Every structure is written in C-alpha cells, then in structure tokens.
Amino acid sequence: MRILITGTTGYIARRLALQLLEDKHELICCVRDLSRIPDEIEDNPLCTFIKVDFLKPESAEIPKDIDAAYYLIHSMSTSSDDFEDLELQCAENFKKLVEPTHCKQVIYLSGIVNDDSLSKHLKSRLQVENTLKSDSYALTTFRAGIIVGSGSASFEIIRDIVEKLPFMITPKWLNTKTQPLAIRDVLNFLAGGLGKEELYNKAYDIFGPEVLTYKEMLLQFAEVRGLKRYIVTLPVLTPKLSSYWLYFVTSTSFQLAAALVDSMKVEVIGKPSNINKIIGIEPMDYKTAVDLAFQRIEQNAVISSWKDAVSSGRFKDQLSKHIEIPQYGCFKDERQKTVTDEAYTLDKIWGIGGRNGWYSFNGLWKIRGYMDKLFGGVGLRRGRTSDTYLEAGDALDFWRVLYASKEEKRLLLFAEMRLPGEAWLEFKIVKGQLHQRAVFRPKGIWGRLYWYAVLPFHAFVFNGMINALVKK
C-alpha cells in the first residue's frame, strides 16, 4: 500500500515507519523541516519525503494516489496556551488536504476518553477525532492511555523518579488508576489495523491487561530495576505544586509536567471490545514492557525519544534557519588543536554530553544546568537518546543538535538553556585541526552583561574540553 505518515520525526511515527517498511509498504513521510529526516529511513527506496506544515498548508501538495494515512500529530509538550486551537487547526488542514486524494482510511492514535471529567489534552484529542471524520475516507481511531517504552515521556519520567528518589512524598494523583500499554503493542495495533474494513469508522480503546495506580507503576518499575522504594501520598500538594515537583525531580519541561498532572487526575480505564481478537494481539503486562524497554536501552537501540521533539525545549524554528552561524554582532570563543587520532576525536565529539559529561569541569556544567532548571529551562536532565549516535534535531542536555555529519567532521549545537540571547557550539575538523567555536549573539544589555559574567569560566571550561577531545 501507499501510505501517508504525519509526525514523521515524532516518537510514535518514527517507530511505526520502520514497522511498515518491514511489511514492504511505500511511505510518503510528511516533515516540517527537510533537514530533520530520520537517518534510519532517509535512504530507503520505499520512502518519499514531502515538506508539510499543517498549520501553514497553502504550499503543501499531498499525492493523490495514496491508499491510507496515519494522523500522528500531538501537542502534549507545547508551551502554547492555545494548543487546543492549534490541534484543531492541524486536523482541519490535514482533512482538507487528504479528502481530494484516493485515501480510503485514516488511522488516528488518540487517548482514552471514558472519564466524565477529561483533562484539557484529552478533550482536545476527542475534538480532533471528531474533526477528522469525513465522508471521503473511513476513520479508524485507536485510543491509548499511558504508553510504556524506551524514550516515551511517561517511561522516562517514571525512571527519573524511581532511580533518583529512595523515599518519595508525592501528590494524591498517584492513586489514580490507568491501564499502561507497551509501545510494541501500540505499533502492532496501528500497523494491524491498516486496510481492515471491519475497523472503518470505528474507535477502539487499546490497553494493557492490568489496571494499576501510578503508585503501583512506580513500585513495579522499582522491582524490575531491583530497587526498594517507599512512597507516601499527601492530599495537600495542589496541581500547581505537583507540576513544580514533577518538573524539578524529572527531565520534563514545566509545560509537559503541567499537562501530565492535569491528565493524571483522570482515570484512564479502557472499554473492553473485540479489537485484540481482530488484530491478533495479546498485550503484555507492565513489568514485561518495562523490562523490554531496558533491553533496548542496554543495547543502545532506542529509536526515538520524546525529548527529541522540538517542543520538548525552547527551540521552535526549523533547524535550517540556524545552521549558518551569524558573523556580526556576536561574541566568540574560538580555539583549535592539532588532532593526532581523527577517529578517536570524532568518537569523543559524538559522545559528548549525557552520561559521558562534557569532559572538563563537569561540576560547572551541572551548576549551569541547575540554574537553568531554576529559571524554567530544560536543564541537563534531558541527556541524550543514544550514547554514541547523533543526528539533526536530537536533544543533547540543554542543547539541540542542528547539524551532525561524521563524513564532514562537523557537529553544530544550538543552546536551549535560558539565555539573554542565542548561543551556538561547533566542533569541526579541518586539515588535521580541531576547531572549537562558541558563539553568542546577545539580546540587549543583559546579553552583554551575561557574556562578560561567564567569560572568566571559558578559559577553564572550553580549554579543558578541547584538550580532552584531542588527547588520549
């Protein structure tokens, strides 16, 4: 089949694309930024990439000869206050673009919406579902709750909490019930529903075999990890305080923390149906899903992470707009060293950040991360998806990867930390010389004062870093 996929660089779509390619489907992948095409599918002859922004669809052209489409656009971590309007606008524009095509089926991944009091995000998902309904194609909706898998927001947040806090004083929403579902099962539902006419114009809840509270999920997660954890829930923690608690304890942004707290107040219990039998799936239990996720992590085989979504940080533009570093009106710290072993230095550059640290004065980097978190930034806790692999769009601590090419021996990062200006960090090997360049474009007087305040630390931090990159 010839299939249109939206949200190609997102957590779900990126994994689903690989599964559909294994089934020899031809994919038309929609991306907002052609510089962010996932490496694992970029050169696949069954993939075609088209530039589409569903908030600005005027110039978009969807091929007429598509058989089906997946709508996988969500705004869970957006910082926008009007995300509901933006989600509806995206859905309406998608519908207008797809209706004139030969598309027979649209598959949408939504959220379970059975509670009488829905969160803002779940209400938005239901509105999107209603918007996507059409007389021109059949809509199949799969409604899921908590998705468990390496790199998923819920998994990484629970991992942060469990691995860092032996004793927890937590909000009362930890007693809310839910039915977690493994990412592997989600993908099997999405792929298995393709082309099945008995699923046309129907919606199904998809969920795991257990009803668990969030507290039980934390404790079972700890069991899988071989950790003993103690949890006390208190009714006095308000939604706002709960959001701050989640934000400071985990790697999430405050916007996502607030959205999750809002959603976690709602019970997410699925309605039974015959969908498991139709697709031929027996969803795995929670502990098995967690164990499989850690197998992927240990194999360094995490394909996608919620942290790599542009909306997980402050960066909102297309990457291509920032690849050319400005030359004027900037402060610069430029250093270079002779490279004795090019392969070693490239591997060190590609391993920078995350668990490996920044090779020099890591304590100062951590302090900067704490300061960033204190002022509402992303901090260092996002880490990186892979310890050895980088591509454009990846989150890297409080940086965003703009460009990464080992062939060209160049890595370019853009700062997502809280700054009175914009900052770039570049590593490039040219003719046996490693060029390390930090560039800061200040915004107003505060930007200039900031640069001069941190300038004394540059001699230690940046000099130590370039030395570590070239010396074995």
From TrEMBL:
<keyword id="KW-0472">Membrane</keyword>
<keyword id="KW-1133">Transmembrane helix</keyword>
<protein>
    <submittedName>
        <fullName>Uncharacterized protein YbjT (DUF2867 family)</fullName>
    </submittedName>
</protein>
<feature type="domain" description="NAD(P)-binding">
    <location>
        <begin position="7"/>
        <end position="124"/>
    </location>
</feature>
<dbReference type="Pfam" id="PF13460">
    <property type="entry name" value="NAD_binding_10"/>
</dbReference>
<keyword id="KW-0812">Transmembrane</keyword>
<dbReference type="InterPro" id="IPR016040">
    <property type="entry name" value="NAD(P)-bd_dom"/>
</dbReference>
<dbReference type="InterPro" id="IPR021295">
    <property type="entry name" value="DUF2867"/>
</dbReference>
<dbReference type="Pfam" id="PF11066">
    <property type="entry name" value="DUF2867"/>
</dbReference>
<feature type="transmembrane region" description="Helical">
    <location>
        <begin position="449"/>
        <end position="470"/>
    </location>
</feature>
<dbReference type="InterPro" id="IPR036291">
    <property type="entry name" value="NAD(P)-bd_dom_sf"/>
</dbReference>
